[in-house]
Amino acid sequence: MAPEVSSDRSYNTKADVYSIGIFVEELFNIDINTSTKYPGLNEVVAAMLIYLYNKRPNCSDILTMIKQPNIIIFLTG
């Protein structure tokens, strides 16, 4: 749950970005501070998990980030 939601503050769709970041972090067992298993994906997940929602990317930004060649190669196998 995004920090702004759990503390009963106002929130927007960036709370969903945070939640998806948590899901991806767990799904791929990523430690955003140390993992090198998924090049490029760490940076995307780290951005999704930024505490302050106004600093967190929106969905359009995330789509742009995952279009990086190294992430596309990882995602398509």
Automatic annotation (TrEMBL):
User: What Gene Ontology terms describe what this protein does at the molecular function level?
Assistant: ATP binding; protein kinase activity
Which superkingdom, per the lineage?
Answer: Eukaryota
PROSITE patterns linked:
PROTEIN_KINASE_DOM
Start and end of every Protein kinase domain? 1-77
Enumerate the InterPro entries for this protein.
Kinase-like_dom_sf (IPR011009), Prot_kinase_dom (IPR000719)
Protein name listed in UniProt: Protein kinase domain-containing protein
Q: Which organism does this sequence originate in?
A: Oppiella nova
